[in-house]
Amino acid sequence: MKKIQNTLKNYSIILLAAALSSCSSVRRHNERSTACIGTHELKEDIDYAYLKLQKMHPQLYWYISKKDLDYKFDSLKQTIDQPLTPLQFYFKLQPVIADIREGHLALRIPRKKFSKKEIKSLEHKKGMFSRFEYYVKDNHLFIVQNKDSINNIKPGTEILSINHIPVSDYIKKYRALISSDGYNDTFQPYFLKDVFFNFYTAENGFADKAYLETLYNGKKQVYILHRESKSITDLEKDKEQEKRTPEKKINDYVAYNDSYNRNFKFLDKDSTTAYLKIQSFSSDYSDRFYKETFEKIKNAGSSYLIIDVRNNYGGSLHEINNLYSYLAPEPYVLIKPSQLTSRITPLKTNYFRKSSPFQYAFKSLAYPTYVFAQTFSTYKKDGKVYYKMKAAKPTKPKKDAFQGKVFVLINGGSFSASSIITAKLKYDKRAVLVGEETGGANDGTVAGFYSYQKLPHSRINFPIGLLLVQPNIDFQNTKRGVSPDVTIKESMQDIIGNKDPQLEWVKKEIAKEKGNR
């Protein structure tokens, strides 16, 4: 009994120390984030970042030559002629990282950390910019949705400036921070509309008020946005949204925007056409979702299936392999063997990252098993090192695999895993792709799992993908995204008017085929 009491006492001390350490850590982090770093130290960070890339990234010179990348890093160092804060340094280094043209490869933007008290305060307030939906075209930012009718700002309104600084200046600055895989030009507008205010708040903080100069139908107007407090009803709704019901689990509910990552329905009364919208390949409960969905499709005797992966930034390789097993007419291999730079690379994945004291203790006990498993997950062939992946092995179709015609909707927001599966579907002639070129590359990407590096002086986080993941196809070497079989673009007016020209084209095509039977 005494031994148990001593253990509990020690554990309480550990928790108290962890809490105090957390408060101190937040303060130290915020002090460092505003302090200037010397030029010599910044140049060492640049060298450190490039060295880690050369050691770990399996396809560093896919879209840029070594000569050109060497020149960019050397040129960057020449511009470091005065001390900079981590944020200022980020805006100089990240554009060079973006020039590598690997969409998964990016520094994490330095930002202020919040104490638990500050986080709780923010949780009791509504977002200021996040309550709108946006659209980016060239150097213009438009509001396309205003669910709460804030200040009665109309969809189609362009934001000209925020707090008297032109939005076009921000867009030019932020665009240089973003890259897709390769040379496609469809990804940036989709991603930029989603991350614009992430960059903005990192630079300007979470203010309680903002002045917007806008333009609508040729008329300029100024609005003042306020960070409003949530009502009791709002807070109760937040709690309700956080509850994980069986339906929310299977369809992967996202409380942040009150939506589901997976949706399924029939588009007609006779269930001829099934529609599957996948917002993210998150993997959570996906096996059960696809099992139940394709059972319904088979029982309904559907002839057509529309899979919508527009604005799907990717996710789980397991999930797309499982989905493909419901579409394949015969056994298949989804991806080619995944290449690494060395056999020890999998051990550089920061095993103890973000571990609580209890988790750290548990992981320490399991570490030898982890090392053993990772060591035997690699193999060498023809002088190259590969990582064993289930998706690189033959997979049999599921018993309820869909036998009818498949259409897939894609756009510039279809990235990573979305591009892997669509490239495979197109190559196997298993689907008709409709929309626009994907933001992810046709010939694969570098991601899989990451080594979470931290630049030694600026303390900027730098996750580096370790696996070359490529669909099992004959490569086109276009250095572009997956191109659609039928190109149909969506305009801002389509979004505002809730029109979907891509889906409508597919519906008309299905109706035409049904009419010709």
From TrEMBL:
GO terms for molecular function: endopeptidase activity; serine-type peptidase activity. This is Peptidase family S41. It comes from Chryseobacterium oranimense. Residues 243-489 form the Tail specific protease domain. GO terms for biological process: proteolysis. It holds the Pfam family Peptidase_S41.
